[in-house]
TrEMBL record:
Record carries keyword Repeat: no
PANTHER family given in the database record: FLAGELLAR BASAL-BODY ROD PROTEIN FLGG (PTHR30435:SF19), FLAGELLAR PROTEIN (PTHR30435)
Domain Flagellar basal body rod protein N-terminal, residue spans: 6-35
UniProt xrefs under SUPFAM superfamilies: Flagellar hook protein flgE
Biological process, per Gene Ontology: bacterial-type flagellum-dependent swarming motility
Lineage: Bacteria, Pseudomonadati, Pseudomonadota, Alphaproteobacteria, Acetobacterales
Similarity-based family: Belongs to the flagella basal body rod proteins family.
Residue ranges of domain Flagellar basal-body/hook protein C-terminal in the record: 195-237
Source organism of the structure: Gluconacetobacter diazotrophicus
Protein's name according to its UniProt entry: Flagellar basal-body rod protein FlgF
Pfam families: Flg_bb_rod, Flg_bbr_C, LlgE_F_G_D1
Subunit structure: The basal body constitutes a major portion of the flagellar organelle and consists of five rings (E,L,P,S, and M) mounted on a central rod. The rod consists of about 26 subunits of FlgG in the distal portion, and FlgB, FlgC and FlgF are thought to build up the proximal portion of the rod with about 6 subunits each.
Domain called Flagellar hook protein FlgE/F/G-like D1: residue spans: 87-152
Length: 247
């Protein structure tokens, strides 16, 4: 293959990744607390050796997939009326205990098990400020959560929620639709605001993501056509070079 094909293939590679990220965003457009992912691409310049001509002719430009990061813009808060639905207004994450360790989440859709433990949709217990599972006494019927995380029932205070974060949110590793694995130490959020009976919607803009997907697919098709055209050109050139001049 010549350099034209390699350059086009580098573009196909990053477009495939962009399509995967966009499709995942659309799939989670209705996942509470989900943050859309964005791709970061850049040009990778390669200096050619022994090339004479204009300065621009001495460089080849490849497309490089640098990283994928999350859009931290807060999603819209909506009223649900459920006592165990909690939304975060501002920064921070809820901490839940999974079989793989503590994970962070912005999805505040929790439920109360028969034993009183507050768990997320996957059955992971919600953790309070002391690192314990949040458990509401089974005989208590009411639950109120103040904006500072104080959880109370008709018998008094039962737990206090703390919101946590990390110094660099880009180091959080997504797991599934709404969990994040911290790779650096967590710290408590100084000014927290928790709203009971509300949930934070996904921040995915389905219209813009759909438009983005169409543009990526169009770019992918055009680039792939270029590769096919270049392959045909090379095959024809080889046929002409190797053709028997006597025939």
């Amino acid at each position: 293959m010549e350099n034209t094909t390699y350059i086009a293939l580098s573009r196909v590679d990053v477009l495939s990744r962009a399509l995967e990220v966009t499709a995942n965003n659309l799939a989670n457009a209705n996942t509470d607390g989900f943050k859309a992912s964005k791709e970061l691409f850049s040009d990778y310049l390669v200096q050619q050796k022994d090339v004479h001509g204009l300065p621009g002719d001495k460089e080849e430009v490849y497309t490089q997939d640098r990283s994928t990061y999350q859009d931290r813009l807060q999603g819209a808060l909506r009223q649900t009326g459920n006592l165990t639905d909690f939304a975060i207004n501002g920064e921070g994450y809820f901490a839940v205990r999974t079989t793989q360790g503590v994970r962070l989440t912005r999805n505040g859709e929790f439920n109360r098990r028969a034993d009183g433990t507050i768990v997320d949709g996957s059955g992971n217990p919600l953790i309070d400020r002391n690192g314990n599972n949040v458990v509401i006494p089974p005989r208590d019927h009411t639950l109120s959560v103040a904006s500072d995380g104080t959880m109370s029932t008709e018998t008094g205070r039962v737990a206090t929620l703390d919101l946590v974060t990390v110094d660099n949110p880009n180091t959080l590793v997504p797991e599934g639709g709404y969990l994040l694995r911290p790779t650096t130490p967590t710290r408590n959020v100084a000014n927290k605001e928790i709203r009971q009976g509300m949930l934070e919607s996904s921040n995915v803009n389905a219209v813009s993501e759909t438009t983005e997907m169409v543009e990526i697919q169009r770019d992918y098709d055009l680039t792939f056509q270029l590769i096919q055209t270049e392959s045909t050109r090379q095959s024809n050139a080889i046929d002409k070079i190797t053709a028997d001049p006597t025939t």
